[in-house]
Amino acid sequence: MTKQRQQSIKKRKPAGKNKTKSQKIKKAASKRAGKHKAGEISKRSTSTKSSSSLSLAQQQCQRKGRTQKGKSPSKFNLYMKKALPQIKHEHPEIANKDAFKKAAEQWAASPDNPKNKHH
């Protein structure tokens, strides 16, 4: 063996110490989860919904004692939600990209568009 090869082997970390970031995160999460005793109820887990049925964002909000409010959809989003199925029904072969373009063109001329309302 060459000297360089021997030095590189010495510099390596011992086996078992090389963990990926996700492995480290999982280990830290399992440590946090194990802090409470079996019979003890956590302050954070007082919800009636099971945490497995909630999304990650909902679980985080729940842990912090907040409710997830979120934004209400814009007029454009509401229009697109209504117009896209109509376009798909009229043109079943149309690609999503083209359906969105067509709906956006219709939105530009739509009376629902606030930019089209003249004062």
Automatic annotation (TrEMBL):
Residues 60-114 form the YABBY protein C-terminal domain. Residues 44-56 have a biased composition (Low complexity). Residues 92-104 have a biased composition (Basic and acidic residues). Residues 1-76, 92-119 are annotated as: Disordered. It comes from the Eukaryota. Residues 8-36 have a biased composition (Basic residues). InterPro entries: HMG_box_dom_sf, YABBY_C. This is YABBY protein C-terminal domain-containing protein. It comes from Rotaria magnacalcarata. The lineage of its organism: Eukaryota, Metazoa, Spiralia, Gnathifera, Rotifera.
